[in-house]
Write a structure and sequence with these properties.
With 171 residues, the chain is α/β, with parallel strands linked by helices. Helix content is 43%, strand content 19%. A 5-stranded mixed sheet has the order 2-1-3-4-5, sandwiched between helices. Helix 1 packs parallel to helix 6.
């Protein structure tokens, strides 16, 4: 159901997480669960993935992973700060070692001059630490934007996980 390259990225991330004794949770908006779907397509993922939240609505972002509604009201759901809060909340609410978040405008509509179609923020947070967030404007249609977002999430999570020693400490 998912491209082979995406499944390979998910498998690589799982190997890195497992080698460091880390667990994972996701909070996804624009990807609608694709990050978690790719992870669960890999045999043995249940030892690492604790849960996934599809937080498509602003209310779900607040209720499921604890994003402050005032933050969303002030900056909008598509912002670096909300992506950070989503990643941190996914880890906190699930008890996972790492949270991944995605929020953006996949299109074809919904874009504005300041937040165009293709604008996406991806967050990765190690439990108890501030999230690292990247913002991108991905080209292409809805499918291409979502695929690029998933690939970015896996790359960022693998980088963060690689910075953790097998004892669970960041290096």
């Amino acid at each position: 159901m998912l491209p082979e390259e995406t499944l390979e990225q998910a498998a690589l991330l799982l190997r890195i997480l497992q080698s460091r004794g880390l667990t994972l949770a996701t909070a996804e908006s624009c990807t609608g669960g694709l990050v978690a779907a790719a992870v669960t397509a890999v045999p043995g993922s249940s030892a690492t993935l604790l849960g996934g939240y599809v937080t498509y609505s602003n209310e779900a972002k607040s209720k499921s992973v604890g994003v402050d509604p005032a933050l969303i009201a002030r900056l909008g759901a598509v912002s670096a700060e909300v992506a950070a809060a989503m990643a941190e909340g996914a880890a906190r609410e699930s008890g996972a070692s790492m949270g991944i978040s995605t929020t953006g405008i996949a299109g074809p509509g919904g874009g504005t001059a300041s937040k165009p179609v293709g604008l996406v923020y991806v967050g990765v947070a190690l439990a108890g630490q501030p999230a690292r967030v990247e913002g991108h404007v991905f080209p292409g249609d809805r499918t291409a934007v979502r695929a690029a977002t998933v690939a970015t999430a896996f790359r960022m999570a693998a980088e963060e996980a690689a910075s953790v020693t097998s004892a669970g400490k960041s290096v």
